[in-house]
Design brief:
Elements (H helix, E strand, L loop, with lengths): L8 H18 L6 H4 L5 E2 L5 E2 L4 E2 L6 H6 L4 E2 L1 E2 L2 E9 L6 E7 L4 E7 L2 E3 L6 H11 L3 E8 L5 E5 L6 H4 L4 E2 L4 E4 L2 H10 L9 E4 L8 H33 L1
Parallel strand pairs: 1-2, 3-4, 11-14
Antiparallel strand pairs: 5-12, 6-9, 6-10, 7-8, 10-11, 13-14
Helix pairs in contact: 1-7
């Protein structure tokens, strides 16, 4: 009988990186939201690129007027504070779901909450779990600083934060001021102890359900498989090239 090859440190590291990458693509923060915004156009509808009819919010004292007049609004900001609360990208994912185990002929029930609360202040563990496990299903809330120095709570697709990596100013899409939900108000009341934010209002810029969760998960899985196939193919060719040189 031949001896089994013992795994080398590089092969183990490659396997670990592969697993981490898989979680990041399928369950984590791979930005797919932009796909569903293709062709959305500009205008006054929620999630569109703001046009000339969309006003910028510059002061916290203006929030009430925007709310009661139902005016489309947006903000341009460079100071964003992550909030310890996340909400489902597709509210249709909320509730109980069943996963069938074909090997044992059993079903397992999974409950998906509409909101997920994080620690405040947000811990490094929360950030890691969100980045690799939760971000495919949830968007995070942010406090955005206005021109008067106060803050407004905004809810939008996380991929819009990519320009911050390059220290760029972000112009957010069209949204509408609404009353905060119970979960949002509890979170904002806590943050109001440290930031000048009104817990009553949220600027909602996200088109709920624009990314059907089943479709999005399938696209992510396909993307992960394609990348894995490409990497294995490249690795196989590199190995053959090395063997030929010997």
């Amino acid at each position: 009988m031949g001896h089994r090859k013992r795994p080398t440190i590089p092969s183990v590291l490659i396997g670990v990186v592969g697993i981490i990458f898989f979680f990041w693509v399928v369950m984590g923060a791979l930005p797919t939201g932009w796909i569903y915004d293709l062709g959305v156009g500009s205008g006054t509808e929620q999630g569109q690129t703001p046009n000339a009819n969309v006003q910028h919010i510059i002061k916290q004292e203006n929030l009430e007027a925007f709310f009661f007049e139902n005016q489309p609004a947006t903000i341009i900001g460079d100071t964003f504070v992550p909030c310890p609360l996340m909400r489902l990208r597709d509210s249709g994912e909320a509730g109980e779901h069943y996963i069938r185990n074909h090997s044992f002929g059993t079903k397992r029930k999974i409950h998906t909450p509409e909101y997920r609360s994080l620690h405040y202040p947000i811990t490094p563990l929360d950030t890691v779990v969100n980045w690799f496990v939760m971000a495919s299903s949830y968007n995070q809330y942010y406090l955005v600083q206005l021109e008067d120095g106060s803050y407004i709570c905004a809810y939008f697709d996380d991929y819009l934060m990519i320009p911050k990596v390059f220290q760029q100013e972000i112009e957010l899409p069209t949204g509408y001021i609404r009353y905060s939900t119970t979960e949002e108000k509890v979170m904002l009341s806590t943050m109001a102890e440290d930031y000048e934010v009104n817990p009553v209002y949220v600027l909602d810029m996200y088109r709920d359900g624009k990314a059907p969760w089943i479709l999005d998960k399938a696209l992510r899985l396909i993307a992960a498989i394609l990348v894995a196939v490409v990497c294995v193919t490249i690795a196989g060719r590199v190995k053959k090239m090395r063997e030929r040189r010997r």
